[in-house]
Design a protein that fits this description.
Layout (H helix, E strand, L loop, with lengths): L3 H18 L3 H9 L4 H34 L2 H12 L4 H33 L7 H32 L4 H24 L6 E3 L9 H11 L7 E3 L10 E4 L6 E5 H6 L2 H16 L2 H27 L14 H38 L2 H14 L8 H7 L5 H15 L2
Helix pairs in contact: 1-3, 3-4, 3-5, 3-12, 4-5, 5-6, 6-7, 7-11, 8-10, 10-12, 10-13, 11-12, 12-15, 13-15
């Protein structure tokens, strides 16, 4: 038991070293063959390396804090302090303990979050001053606190009311909550951070007709294509499909429209239509619920085992919050390769739909090439980074799909 924290830290140090320091020269050669210059390849690799340093920094901060709360006297002391403030009341104790953890983690992460902002400015990906960035940063912390607070209270109420079968009810509830969040995200949360304008009301209004022709070809019930003012935050180009049931929509970044030709935007739009046609949000929620069911069952066994060993009087004891958070942290890492593999499968399906709907493989490749260059993407990732972290197939793989599709239809 005493060696467990050291083992966990050693595993993460090994993963960090592998993903940061071990090169894969064949990926560089493949990127060259795909038409990327040495400068684009080197910039993408360096940019990715620096971003990963920030990411690993926050990972080790969170892991260190959780290990300290679970395996040292820090956790029991924090719980006792919160219990005194709450005068022994169960729910206030839980909320105080969760708020304390959230605030301490935010304070510890803050220098790295500022570093990310400075990093974007150093690479020319944003010109945003500190003040507007900090205001939105605080807003994001508040929104996240509310959402995670709802999940936490719901989980612990189930732990208290259904001590034997809470994990089953929590898995079912997670599917409902995920669907509800997907429903309200586009109309409640996203407008807190950006403005969304129908393309017919923007300077790209002349593109509305050809883009809507593509929507009609896909036969999806999309009335308006929305443009997001992404340029207010950064110079990243992107697009996404979001929503659930009546709030489904497709959003194009204004940066994307500014930097790409109409045929390239059509390919990007067709990709998002592919997500819609394959019901990826619905399938993702269902698969996530199944994965969480397994994870929550394991957590129920861990909490049962922890009773008496960590001073817990039962699974709903707020003293076990750090154990729950640590188990969730480690569980998300164990599930990451599988969830990323599912996501890459979804992206391949959407890419194939983009090729079939738009029928423009050359423009598809041009769009991928521009997106990689404009977003300073790593076009030569190592296989283990792809396996562990990548939610999308590598750019060169996506371009090769277009080459193969073009050859197949020309036969």
């Amino acid at each position: 038991m005493r060696q467990l924290p050291a083992i966990i830290v050693a595993v993460f140090v090994g993963l960090a070293a592998l993903t940061l320091l071990v090169p894969w020269p064949p990926a560089v050669e493949t990127a060259r063959v795909s038409g990327f210059s040495d400068e684009v390849i080197a910039n993408g690799m360096q940019h990715s390396f620096e971003r990963r340093l920030f990411w690993w920094g926050t990972t080790f901060i969170e892991l260190g804090l959780l290990l300290a709360l679970v395996f040292t006297r820090l956790g029991p002391a924090a719980t006792a302090w919160c219990r005194r403030l709450a005068r022994g009341w169960w729910l206030p104790t839980l909320l105080l303990l969760a708020a304390l953890y959230y605030v301490v983690l935010a304070i510890l992460d803050f220098p790295l979050d500022v570093g990310r902002w400075a990093h974007l400015r150093a690479w020319g990906m944003t010109e945003r001053p500190f003040g507007p960035w900090f205001s939105e940063y605080l807003l994001a912390l508040a929104v996240r606190a509310v959402l995670e607070g709802v999940v936490l209270v719901g989980l612990y109420l189930l732990l208290r009311w259904l001590p034997r079968w809470w994990w089953l009810a929590a898995a079912a509830g997670s599917v409902v909550l995920a669907a509800l969040f997907a429903l309200v995200l586009p109309v409640v949360v996203a407008p807190l951070f950006n403005t969304f304008t129908p393309i017919s009301e923007t300077k790209w209004a002349k593109w509305e007709r050809p883009l809507h022709d593509l929507v009609q070809k896909a036969n999806v019930p999309l009335d308006e294509i929305l443009v997001m003012n992404a340029s207010a935050q950064s110079k990243h180009s992107n697009a996404y499909y979001t929503g659930f049931a009546g709030t489904r929509r497709i959003v194009l970044y204004d940066n994307l429209l500014e930097k790409h030709t109409l045929p390239e935007v059509e390919s990007v739009l067709a990709h998002e239509l592919g997500h819609w046609l394959h019901d990826h949000i619905v399938i993702g929620i269902a698969l996530g619920g199944l994965g969480l069911l397994a994870g929550l069952y394991v957590l129920s066994r861990i909490l049962k085992w922890a009773e008496g060993r960590f001073g817990l009087y039962g699974p709903s004891d707020p003293a076990g919050l750090a154990i729950v958070l640590l188990a969730g942290f480690l569980g998300s890492w164990l599930a990451m390769p599988l969830s990323c593999a599912v996501s890459r499968h979804f992206e391949r399906q959407a890419d194939m739909m983009a090729l079939e709907l738009a029928g423009q493989p050359d423009e598809f490749m041009d769009a991928e090439r521009k997106l990689a260059k404009d977003n300073i993407g790593n076009v030569a990732p190592t296989p283990w980074n792809v396996w562990l972290f990548a939610t999308h197939p590598p750019t060169v793989e996506r371009m090769q799909m277009a080459v193969d599709w073009k050859k197949a239809i020309s036969r």
